[in-house]
Design brief:
By secondary structure, the protein is α/β, with parallel strands linked by helices. The chain has a single domain, classed as Response regulator (Rossmann fold). The protein contains five helices and five strands, in the order βαβαβαβαβα. It has a five-stranded parallel sheet with strand order 2-1-3-4-5, with helices on both faces. Strand 1, helix 1 and strand 2 form a beta-alpha-beta unit. The relative contact order is 0.16. The mean pLDDT is 81.
Amino acid sequence: MENRLALVVVDADVRSMLAGCLAGHGYTVIEAPHAARRLLKEADVVFLDPGTVEEGALELAASVLSLGRPVFMVSSAEMIAHALPRGASEYLPKPVTEGQVQGALDRLHRKRLQSGWA
């Protein structure tokens, strides 16, 4: 299975750091400064900064989650607190570090192995 990852983060520096880290873990990274519903639904994993989506970021994340695909929210602590009840696979507070990304990917990999979806 190809691991297509949609990286929807408007900040070019953060997007570049994340893309490099994620590509190093075997993901085909599709960078997008703004979300496209089709793109997100075609990805196997989504890293989403809700601030990059003009409207409905949490609803968009919920629709991706409903397809059984993980969504990693990359956002401020305030947005994460607002989004917690709405659900996401992981929350990474800004400023996100490579170590946090590594930890999130490790947890995702363990969950996939446990569920048989590797």
